[in-house]
Design a protein that fits this description.
Largest sheet: 5 strands, parallel
Number of helices: 5
Number of strands: 5
Helix content: 25-40%
Strand content: 15-25%
Radius of gyration: 13 Å
Oligomer: single chain
Length: 123
């Protein structure tokens, strides 16, 4: 049986987490939502995640700091950032830190799915 990828969405906005998780499930992925970076880091699912969707700005630990922690812990999971507050410095930090994608809200469902499929190595 083929592996069903687990996509995790980390965003402090409940509606974003729920809608994106629903989108991923509708195309055959497993999905899990987390309301904060800390919740993700404490999750038993962390080592099972195949792709991570991160909001750049969140209360507490933001997406860039979470990305740095994941890299430091040698957890090799593709990260796609999403933000409503784009700026060149943040985008540069995310991409130079190894992000597989960087999407500016609002983005289309297809743009997100294309980014995830690309990060997973499938089209």
């Amino acid at each position: 049986m083929a592996h069903c990828p687990l996509v995790a969405v980390v965003d402090d906005d409940d509606s974003v987490r729920e809608s994106l998780s629903g989108l991923f499930r509708s195309v055959g992925f497993k999905a899990r939502g987390f309301g904060s970076a800390a919740a993700l880091l404490q999750s038993e699912d962390l080592p099972k995640i195949d792709c991570l969707i991160l909001d750049v700005r969140m209360p507490g630990m933001g997406g860039l700091e979470l990305q740095q922690r994941l890299v430091a812990s040698q957890l090799d999971v593709p990260v796609i950032f999403m933000t409503a507050h784009d700026d060149a410095r943040t985008r540069s930090q995310a991409l130079s830190g190894g992000a597989a994608g960087y999407l500016i809200k609002p983005f289309s469902e297809e743009a997100l799915l294309d980014a995830v499929r690309g990060a997973l190595g499938s089209t």
